[in-house]
Amino acid sequence: MQTIPKWMQGLAVTVGGHGVVSHVGTEGLRMLAFKSGQTIELTAALRVRGRQVRHDRGQVLSDLGVMIADGGTAIRHIRTLRDQGELFGSVASASTAWRALEEVTARQRDKIAAARARARRRVWTLVAARHGGVPASRTCYGDLGEWIVIRLDATIQLCHSDKEAAAGTF
Q1: What 3-state DSSP class applies to 44?
Q2: Can you tell me the distance from the alpha carbon of 165 to that of 105, in angstroms, rounded to the nearest whole number?
Q3: Which of 67, 92, 119, 139 has the fewest CB atoms within 10 Å, i.e. the most exposed one?
Q4: Secondary structure (H, E, C), 92-146
Q5: Whole-angstrom Cα distance, residue 95 to residue 76?
Q6: For 44-79, what is each residue's pLDDT tens digit?
Q7: pTM of the predicted model, to two decimals?
Q8: Alpha-carbon dihedral of residues 124, 28, 104, 120, nearest 10 degrees?
């Protein structure tokens, strides 16, 4: 049984102010990786006997995945998580993330694939145990059957630009 790290316990997210852009769901993705066992599986896959690292390599890979899901397009965008220490705790720097990726061997890539598969199997087993299968998604159009719907609510922040050929947000 996994325990939730102290920094994750009792988390509450509050966003306020004018012009604040929220990264809705980012912490939820990070917690899902942890609670599903994927982060721990990745840690085991990347462990090198006798080597001490400041940032757990499984967490670094999970954080990179969260960064990509949040819209990051370059390793340096991990700073989006790193700059929110109150929410995410300690997050590796871009240079540490690069090092973590460069350290991955061909054998470890196979272990990473197996770790991801185990985490996926665990999640689907838990879903099936609770619902007898993937629960149907019901909408105003009826039952969607086998389709899986993930709904994240957010507010679009409209912005204006005088830049030539700039398009509005809709």
Answers
A1: helix
A2: 46
A3: 139
A4: CCHHHHHHHHHCCCHHHHHHHHHHHHHHHHHHHHHHHHHHCCCCCCEECCEECCC
A5: 8
A6: 999 888 877 788 899 999 999 999 888 888 999 999
A7: 0.65
A8: 0
